[in-house]
Design brief:
Number of helices: 0
Shape: globular
Helix content: under 10%
CATH architecture: Sandwich
Strand order of the largest sheet: 4-3-6-7
Structural class: mainly beta
Radius of gyration: 12 Å
Number of domains: 1
CATH class: Mainly Beta
Strand content: over 45%
Order of helices and strands: EEEEEEE
Length: about 80
């Protein structure tokens, strides 16, 4: 499960990830056209994981956050004010 808050966001979003197993995963923030704006690799532990993403530099609009690993594939829509 992937939850993004606050949504809409102004400066920083918090991403809560519930992982079924410990693994390496990659999150990617894309615009509506599919262009990758940010991408990071993270190590997830089994259970709840929390990430902070700075979105201050992004223009207002709609974005997609995608998280992918061997055992996880989740996405969420994000509004930037």
């Amino acid at each position: 499960m992937l939850a993004v808050h606050p949504n809409p966001a102004v400066n920083t979003v918090t991403v809560d990830i519930n992982a079924t197993v410990a693994e390496q995963a990659t999150w990617k923030l894309t615009d509506m056209a599919g262009k990758t704006l940010m991408q990071r690799t993270v190590l997830l532990t089994r259970g709840k994981n929390t990430l902070q993403i700075q979105v201050t530099q992004l223009p207002a609009g709609t974005y997609y956050l995608k998280l992918a690993g061997n055992n996880i594939s989740q996405s969420a829509k994000l509004q930037k004010l």
